[in-house]
Design a protein that fits this description.
homotetramer; 15 strands; globular; 6-stranded parallel beta sheet; 341 residues; alpha/beta
């Protein structure tokens, strides 16, 4: 805990805020947990106590003004992200913000403009880019090990749907779930999407349909470097959290399989049985939650740009918009069509 | 070689004809190689000699009239299939016909009508249905082991493109290569396609594009039982013949991986190295070529309908037509639109 | 069936004789099924009929004297092997003989001397050397891919014990089952065993113990090139025929896993389920039965020595003898101690 | 950091002491890092500072007398273990002690008697029992999923030998490395060894032989419940830390494979390439180091006996002794022979 560490102030001590705060306090070299804020009485105090102490503030502004806070980590509810990004930018604080900034494109753009004006670093919390499996695929692709990239297949299925009341405010499948896959597709291809075709429907739970959403989808994306990408999504996978991808190119294929809790198999007269994939995203992406903040801290320390930029936060919102329009109009939709700019 | 075996007459002793003839002569219980015909002088004689003898005929009609021939196996070039199906039907002979009957829908329909009128059994040579991996998926699906089927993903990539002069007469990627995947999708789902959306382009070899064809494609199919299916195709896979699928449903997923020539791995300081998939379709589908004829012979013996019907030969032609139109018009195309009926 | 093919006469049309005869008749280029003999009336005639004809003889001597017989394949009961080897050697015929020549060392030596005097090629039927998995391990070892070989682990477990009346005449576990693993160890190491330590007991069926045999064993072998080898055996494996090995050296490890009937997995809420290993040795070693005869025929055609020599038939008998003495005396036993020479 | 947590005092802040201290401070619910001691000036102070503070003592006795210390964690050099165990017992403190207590059996026994007299809980640091892969095997065995256990195979190979000066004081391969496998064999079987046969030699580095040690070994153990166990060891594995086992029984087999840093494979024209096993024991056993202390803390909290007892620390020492004698005398050695009791 020397003066050289970067003091992080965490806004929001909910599920993801606690994870980030705990990682900062104990597992991220070069960082320290400087401050906490949560609107619920006592919550920040309790978390701070468990983690060896942090300045607990009574307001977001208080935290941002705390001289111990070198950068802010925004983990509050989605509808507050854009406002807090703008406030942090105004306070001149580097920002790590959970995804998405907003599902409203104009709100996103206003926040990004504030960041640009303030010239503060901003990293969006697309943590899956830091998953060791996916990162190894990207490394192989960048190293030319698959040759010229051609076909990207992403499978992304959750173990079970979120509560119905969450569905209602989630922004819909494409904004809430596929948005991670949109980001993954951009990360893996290093390219920009041109057009999107999506089919989607209700297969898991009719009440999801009654809430105006879908739970199963197939998306086809054409990228401007010639890569074709397909994504398949389901809100339910009986066998656990299914997060795989494969990237095929002129010289070969890189393929990321699911993590499992152990590598023990049982052979008996009925078959050879292996462990299911990790069931919960907090387990599966445990490493990536830590690694993304580590990367943010290192970016601040070294002066390089954060690995996930504001634009990386903006484009997936456009893609979700295009996917929704594609389903509604049963045709491929170009990104230009849905971009307000 | 008792009187109870079924005598098969093979029309065409090219690559696939030789495989079928050899299997019939030595590895298909209940069948015998009764007769052979090939337009090239001496070819049928030589093959017959290698296989312990068969009646070699100087014309297709001669073979069909041979009383030793209980059923015909049509392995000649694609443009002769429909004509020979009609002739065999007229001769009252059960028919095994290599796929496709024709890439022209009207020609297909005329041949199927002849078969219907003659009331002879007809099996189309979609051999992949008999591959042990894919068959096990279908078994699991039919047994309810994945619950209600929802998403089918098919990967089908050839090790390398066929010769350019073949490309020119192949009918194009969808009729020549994807047609197997269209059949597989119908086999696995047990359902009928409603609409198809396809993107396709030239990624492997620009000369394929100059020949008016594509070599890389992504196809999305909506089936009438609610299953979404995606297919990805490439005319080239550096690592071998890539033929996989996975079928996802409400209770789980069945997943067919590639066959390999052996199960030995090498671990050294650079990694753990496994064998590539079998490289050539004759190796990969060796079992299925034998099993499809075995099934045909058993169908004839028992009086049950062949496992792959004339309609199973027709619908993939429609699907290829729809895929071509989808690429041309950049929109999903319903099967009805392309059906001349 | 040209004059250049090698005519093989098969002695014994039991289970393994039928396999060899069928392979010779249909699947081994360069060979033809010239003649058959079986002591049971009508058996050879029926098999010959199924396979397109062969000279059926009324005696072993008759077959050996048949000018159409270029070489003999001895598939009769084990107690006749040595006698027939000697007779075939006297008749100047190259010999393929199923393992073991005899479980009596003196009888083995007498037969091998007859072969040496007659200077006829002899191949012993240790077919597992021709299994694609094990062969790939040996290829890697010979190519230096594991560096200097150090530790060889062989797992060899049968799905279920043979009938008790067979156990009684089998010669015991080491002569009947482990003998294959002894051969495999010599094949993989390319070296000679120095000493053997074995523990063994009855774990599968007490009646095997009552018959004076064991059903479970662990064997440790020290080879003269410094390799340590361990073998574990069981007469019963609930999950199928378990035939694996791994060879560890200074630069890496080659590892052969079991073959499976298909590569389809099922993921459901209880786990990820794969197919069991092939259950029966005739399925697992189908390829190797064919390949060993192919190799024999090619050796005869090219004049090179057969791949599995008479000495390869002798040493495993010595090893089984040493293993039996080790169990009895609870100490390591050198090969010299048990060699009558 | 409430009063209900258990205060742990760590003796020794070397490699393993730092791991334990860090885990206690940040990742073990119910525990707190109360105190530290290291004989090297400033080392404990620095570690304590990094971890948010702990009472740093100038002597082992000082730490043991600290009222904030509810239990001690002995991570000092092996030659001090027994003395510190006795001192902690005298101080009435529950003890977690790194393995081995001593390689001298009499010293072990004296320490265990002190623990017995003081009636303090003692847990030995055989952390591999807490590895998720091995633990899953044991779970399956205890649940009866493999039926009656019969054959246990353990592979344990280090990526590279330790420094030669460490070899000289290590006690030799069996005491330093195989001792973990001896413990694993007892853990998995839940039984006691009766006799041991070992072969061992120098394959990795002749200087290890010059130092009077071996680097490669095969051990066969007969357990009193009828299980046969084999262990193979090497001080060097080019492909990483190789820690696997399989347990075979009447109904099936449980098999633990190596952990890998990711699950991404690359398929190219030369093969399918997977990641190597984790290379370093601190990575491979990261989870188990944490879990063993967690288990210790829970045992103290609940009053149940620790999972790895003093006797679990004693028997592997006997086993290593028997293995050494077996190699020297080239015969199986019973445990009774080497037990001073």
């Amino acid at each position: 805990m020397t003066a050289e560490t970067i003091g992080l102030g965490v806004l929001g001590a909910g599920r993801i805020g606690q994870i980030h705060a705990r990682n900062i306090a104990t597992r991220i070299p070069g960082a320290r947990l400087a401050a906490l804020y949560d609107p619920r009485p006592g919550v920040a105090e309790e978390l701070g106590g468990q983690l060896g102490g942090a300045n607990v503030h009574g307001s977001e502004e208080g935290l941002m003004a705390d001289p111990a806070v070198d950068a802010v980590v925004i983990c509050s509810s989605t509808d507050t992200h854009a406002r807090l990004v703008e406030a942090a930018a105004a306070a001149g604080r580097p920002i790590f913000c959970e995804k998405p900034i907003s599902i409203d494109l104009e709100t996103v753009d206003r926040a990004l403009e504030a960041v640009d004006r303030a010239e503060v670093p901003l990293q969006i919390g697309f943590n899956r880019r830091f998953d060791p499996n996916f990162r190894e695929v990207r490394r192989a692709v960048e190293a030319g090990e698959i040759g010229k990239p051609e076909i990207l297949r992403i499978t992304s299925r959750a173990p079970s749907p979120p509560p119905l009341d969450y569905i209602a405010v989630s922004g819909g499948l494409f904004f809430d779930m596929t948005i991670h896959d949109f980001d993954m597709a951009r990360y893996q291809t290093g390219a920009e999407p041109r057009s999107i075709y999506a089919v989607a429907g209700v297969r898991v739970d009719p009440r999801i349909g009654e809430a105006g959403d879908v739970d199963t989808a197939i998306v086809t994306i054409e990228f401007d470097n010639g890569v074709y990408c397909t994504i398949d999504n389901s809100r339910r996978a009986a066998y656990g959290y299914d997060q795989r991808l494969e990237f095929f190119g002129s010289k070969g294929m890189a393929r990321a399989e699911n993590d499992r809790p152990h590598r023990t198999t049982l052979s008996d007269e009925s078959g050879v049985h292996s462990a299911l994939p990790l069931h919960f995203f907090l387990e599966r992406y445990q490493t990536s939650f830590r690694a993304e903040l580590q990367s943010f801290v290192e970016a601040l320390g070294s002066g390089r740009a954060p690995e996930v930029s504001g634009m990386d936060g903006r484009v997936p919102v456009l893609m979700a918009r295009a996917a929704n329009r594609s389903v509604a109009e049963r045709r491929p939709v170009s990104l230009e069509e849905v971009d307000g700019r």
